[in-house]
Amino acid sequence: MNKLRGYLSSGALIASACLLSAISGVVAAQTTPLTNQEAHRRAEALLKQMTMEEKVGQLNQAAGIVIPGLATEKPDAAIAKGQVGSVLWQFDVKELNRMQHVAVEKSRLHIPLLVGFDVIHGYRTIFPVPLAMASSWDPAVEEAAQHQAAKDSRAAGIQWTFTPMVDIARDARWGRIVEGAGEDPYLGSAMAAAQVRGFQGDSIGPDSVLACVKHFAGYGAAEGGRDYDSSNIPESLFRNVYLVPFHAAEKAGAASFMSAYMDLNDVPATGNRWLLHDVLRQEWGFKGFVVSDAIAVGNLQTHGYARDPEDAAYKAFTAGVNMDMASLTYIHNLPKLVASGKVTEAELDTAVMPILEAKYRLGLFDNPYVDESKVDAQLSSPEGLALERKLAARSMVLLKNDNHTLPLSKNLKKVAVIGSLADSTKDIEGGWTVEGLFGGPGKSHPVTVLAALKDRLGANINYVPGVAPAREYPSMFDAMTGAKKLPPPTDAEVTDWIARAKAAAADSDVVVAVLGELASMSGEAASRATLDLPGMQQQMLEAVAATGKPVVLVLENGRPLDIRWAADHVPAILEAWYPGTEGGDAVADVLFGDVNPGGKLPVSWPRTAGQEPLYYNHNLTHEPEDRPSFTSRYWDLTTRPLYPFGYGLSYSTFKFANLRLSKDRINAEQTTEVEVDVTNTSTVAGDSVAQIYIHQQAGSASRPVRELKGFRRITLRPGETQTLKFSLGKEELQFWSPQTKLWDVEPGTFDVWAGEDSTASLHAELIVTK
Ligand code: NOJ
C-alpha cells in the first residue's frame, strides 16, 4: 500500500468523460441466481475456450487507477487483451462502467471484470468501525450493516469487498485492531459469520457482494504491535485462537480469502503452502479463491523468501494464491512458468475456475453494468442512514457512570463542549471510507457530536475545540493527499485554550469532552508506541474537571487508550468508537437516554501500553497475580486491565442467578444445557449481554483461565426475568492439543461461569467422562 503514495496528485479519480455516452443506460434485466452446479458447468465450458494467457489474465488483479511507480497507465489495453480478471481501487461508477465495456466488448471472450474494493463498514452511509460493531455483542448489527453495504456496493458497480477482517488483536498498539472484532475467537467467529451472511446473503447471487476474509492468517500477532512485523505463533495458539474466526467465516460460505503480508513463523503468509493449501483447502475444504494482499506476491522477494519475481510467482501460486493483487508478478511470470512446465496447465485451470464460477454466480455475464442514474439515490437512502444511527448507538459502551451522571437532563441550560474531535466530520466515520479513502471529502454528511448537541440544545452550547492532535509521522493517506503536518501548539496557545476551556466549563451545567484519536491514528500502518490521549487533550480534560463541574467523557477512537486519569476523576465515560455517518446523533441518543447503552468491550482495556499484549484468555501462570511475593504482577503495576473483556454498563442494572446445568456429568459426545436467570433490577428497560465462560481444569495441555463459549444480548423490562439457555458440547469443549495434535474433548472437570463480563463469579462445575 505504501506504493499508493502520491496517487491522488495524478488526478486519477476524475472520470474519463470520453466514452460515457457509449455506456449510459446499458443495463440488462435482473437475473435469477445460478445454482453452483450451473455456474460450474458454464465456467468449465468457458475455460475450454481460453488460451493459457487468458487464463493467467483472470488471475491478475490490476489497479483501476494510475499509481505512480506501480501502475503507470490505466489498465485498458491489458483488459482488452484479456489480461485482467479483476480491478481494484476504483470506485468512480462511470469509470467502472467504462472499463467493464472494454472487458465485455473488446476482449476476445467477453469476460466481465470482477470489481473489488475495501467496503469495510459501509459505502457512503458509513457504519461504526468494525471494532465498534463487535462491541454491540449482537451479530445482527454486523449482518444488517454489511447487507446495506452490499446493496450499496452492487448499485455502484462493486461486486467484491475485502471484508471481513477477522484478525484476532491482543495488542492495542497495533493500528489495525480497529478493523476487527477484538481479542476473542468465539465473539470474533460470530461477527465474522454475520458479516459473510450480510455481504453474500443465503447464497451468492445478483444482489450479493463476495466477502473476502482477511488477513489469512496471524497478522494481528505482529511483534510489538508493529504493523507488518513478523508473527511467531505456536501451532496450538494458532489453531485454538487465531484461525478460529477464519474457519467460522469459511463455514459461513465466504467466497474468497486474502493472504496476509507478514512472515508467519518465518514463512510469509502469501507463500505459505501449509496455510493456504494444507489447512485452508485440505482440512477445511475451502472451494473459493485466494487473493494476495496488495503487492504481497511481489513482496515475497522483499521478504527475502523469493529469489526474483519468477520465483515469487512460483512460490505464491504453488502455495495456493489464485489471484495476484496489483503486483503484476503473475501476469509477467506465470506464462514462463507454464511454458517451462514448473506450473502445469491443469494447476492453472484449478486456480482460474473458482474466479469464473464467482463471476457467473454474481450474474456478471448477464448484467455487467450498473445504472448510473440510480446510484446516488441508493447510496444516500434515508433507510440506510436510519439504520446507521440505530446500530451506532447499539455499539457504544458505557465505561463509567458515577452518581447517575448519565443520562443527561433534556432541559440543560448550558453545556460546555471540549475537544476538536467534537466537530470533526473527517474523524467521526473512522478510516476506510470508500469515497473518502484517498483523502477526498467523500459525499456523506456526517453528523458530529457538536452538531447533534446543538440540534437538541440550540444556543446553549459553548464550544472550545483546542488544537487538534496530529500524528508525528504522516499516515499513508496524508502522504497521498499531500496533507501537511501542522506544527504543535505553542505554549502560549496551550495556555490560552486551557483558560478558555476552564471558563466554558465554569459557566456550564455539564461538560461534554469529546476526546480520542484522529481516524488516521489507527488502521493500516498506524501502530503506536503509547496509548496516551494525543496532543493537548489530557490537559484540556484535567482543566475542565478541576472546575468541579460534572464531566462526561465521550471517546472517539479506534483502540483502547490510556484513560487512567479519567477513570479516576471523571464521573461518566462513554466509548463511542468511530460511530459513523449519524454518529453524533447516536451519541446524543445515548447521552440523553433515548437509547439505553448495552455494548460490551470486545477487548481487555489496558491501563497503559506497557501491559500489552493483554487479553483475558491467557494461561494460568504457576504464580498468579494474587500470590504474595513470587508473582507475575509487574512491581509497578497490576497486570489486570482497567476494564475487563466483556464489560460495559447500562442505565439499568441486572442480576444473574441460578446457574444450573441440565447434566453436570456428560461424556465427550454429549451436550449439556447451561441455564441462568437474568433479571432487570432497575426501573428502566435495558439490554444485558449474558456471557458464558469455561475453563478446563487439567488435561494434555494448559488451558486458558477462561474462554467465552456463549453470549446473548437481550432486552429486559424493569423487573423482568428471562431464563437463558446455552449449550456446552463438543464444539465448545474441544481444543487442539499440542501433544496429540488433534481436536478433542478431553475427560476432566470444567469450570463454568455466567455473568456480565469475563470476571463473572456465578460458578458451576461440569464433569466430562470418556
Ligand atoms: C492492503 C490492506 O492490508 C488490505 O486490508 C486491503 O484490503 C488491501 N490493501 C486492498 O486495498
Describe the protein.
This protein is α/β, with parallel strands linked by helices. The protein has 3 domains: 2-375, TIM Barrel, CATH 3.20.20; 391-603, Glycoside hydrolase family 3 C-terminal domain (Rossmann fold), CATH 3.40.50.1700; 654-769, Sandwich (Immunoglobulin-like). A 6-stranded mixed β-sheet has the order 11-16-15-14-12-13, with helices on both faces. Strands 4-3-2-1-10 form a 5-stranded parallel β-sheet. Strand 12 (415-418), helix 18 and strand 13 form a beta-alpha-beta unit. Helix 8 runs parallel beside helix 10, helix 11 (273-283) packs parallel to helix 13 (309-319) and helix 13 (309-319) crosses helix 14. The longest helix has 17 residues, at 139-155. Residues 1-30 have low confidence and may be disordered. Bound molecules: 1-deoxynojirimycin. 1-deoxynojirimycin binds at residues 1, 118, 162, 214, 293-294, 524. The site of 1-deoxynojirimycin (NOJ) has 7 residues, from loops.
Summarize the structure.
Residues 688-758 form the Fibronectin type III-like domain. This protein is an alpha/beta fold and 770 residues long.
User: What name does the CATH topology of the largest domain carry?
Assistant: TIM Barrel
- Described by the principal axes of the CA atoms, the overall outline is globular
Q: What is the helix fraction of residues, given as a range?
A: 25-40%
**First CA to last CA: what distance?**
52 Å
Strand content: 15-25%
List unreliable stretches of 5+ residues: 1-30
Ligands (ions, cofactors included): 1-deoxynojirimycin
Highest CATH level, the class of the largest domain: Alpha Beta
Total of domains: 3
Helix count from the secondary structure assignment: 24
Please tell me how large the radius of gyration is: 26 Å
The number of strands is: 26
Strand count, sense and closure of the main sheet? 6 strands, mixed
Just name the CATH architecture of the largest domain. Alpha-Beta Barrel
Mean pLDDT: 94
| Helix/strand class | alpha/beta
Specify the CATH homologous superfamily of the largest domain. Answer: Glycoside hydrolase, family 3, N-terminal domain
Q: Major sheet: order of its strands?
A: 11-16-15-14-12-13
